[in-house]
Amino acid sequence: MDQITLRQINKRFGNTAVLQDVTLSVEPSTFLALLGPSGCGKTTLLRLIAGLERPTSGEIEIAGRVVAGPDHWVETEARKLGMVFQSYALWPHMSVAENVGFGLSVRGMHGRERAARVEAALAMVGLEGLGSRRPPELSGGQRQRTALARCLVTEPELILLDEPLANLDPHLRESMQAEFRRIHRKTGTTFVFVTHDQAEAMALADRVAVMNAGRIEQLGTPQELYGQPATRMVAEFFGKGVVLPVDVAARLDDRTRRVSLGGVTLDLPGVAAVGAAQLSLRPENVVPAAAGLRPHLVGRVVDTSFRGADHLVTLALEQFGGKTIGLGMAAAPEPGARVDLAVTGGWVLPA
């Protein structure tokens, strides 16, 4: 039985269609990222699952129970879920322990049992000994851990997170990513989190739903979305790289296509039909061409930046109107220098 099932979900605000025919199944213990640009509908979808909004049409099931549909509505507090907000939503006048235990108090749990559950939740998120502090006395990371502990203490079947790391600095963000992964492994709870940061989605999730204009463009593992994007939008939004036009001359087998790239013939993995198609290239799919051989692509250096182990060299591709791709190089060429490139991989997708 799936933890979450969405069937043909539509949501409109007045005349604006925010979600369109969204269908999605999430297995128990999944860490799912809803990823997409601002305005794509990912937060609205999360709010529908939480019961903070009603769908215009369609049906939502949580753990096999219909919680939203034409003839069904289950309030948020009865959906057995927890939610972590970007703003933390902590009561400033309450201590950490009181914030964490608030949901238990509402359910009528008090005394030693409540205290033990709160203590265990604080230990789970690494906040032992801080129960007496108040939110203003905590760092950003500690506030986020408090909000997560408040979810965990009620032992929900599902935890929803709305851009929970957006307010943290890069160092704290990496630390909390590791914390989320550890807690997910330990509890086995289903996590669904919203983010616009593809690096964050790759670091945390085992499944990613890329959203665009109110629809799910592609659902898969981070590895599938990175290496085998289904659409141009996914190829450009998920991971760094460039998408170039190609012509598929022949289908060599189920997963290999012979393509023409700027007049050069290459055999590359992909699923596009014969005819006009697109080639998704990641930085690791291009290397400097060997001397004396015809290059597949010709780039001009437009920018360089030192990364420690190497230099990130941004190249404008001459045959493709100046589209750019980044390449790691040991030494940084001068701006304007020509760099001949060989294509070693990629993914051929439909036009």
TrEMBL record:
GO cellular component, one term: ATP-binding cassette (ABC) transporter complex
UniProt KW keywords: ATP-binding, Nucleotide-binding, Transport
PANTHER family attached to this UniProt entry: SPERMIDINE/PUTRESCINE IMPORT ATP-BINDING PROTEIN POTA, SPERMIDINE_PUTRESCINE IMPORT ATP-BINDING PROTEIN POTA
Membrane topology of the entry: Peripheral membrane protein
Upper lineage: Bacteria, Pseudomonadati, Pseudomonadota, Alphaproteobacteria, Hyphomicrobiales
Limits of the ABC transporter domain: 4-238
UniProt record similarity statement: Belongs to the ABC transporter superfamily.
Superkingdom: Bacteria
Principal location listed in the UniProt entry: membrane
Pfam family, one: ABC_tran
Species of provenance: Devosia riboflavina
ATP-binding in keyword set: yes
Molecular function GO labels: ABC-type transporter activity; ATP binding; ATP hydrolysis activity
Family matches, as SMART domains: AAA (SM00382)
Protein name as annotated: ABC transporter domain-containing protein
Cellular compartment(s): Cell inner membrane
Alphabetized InterPro entries for the sequence: AAA+_ATPase (IPR003593), ABC_SmlMolc_Importer (IPR050093), ABC_transporter-like_ATP-bd (IPR003439), Mo/tungstate-bd_C_term_dom (IPR008995), P-loop_NTPase (IPR027417), Transp-assoc_OB_typ2 (IPR013611)
The keyword RNA-binding appears for this protein: no
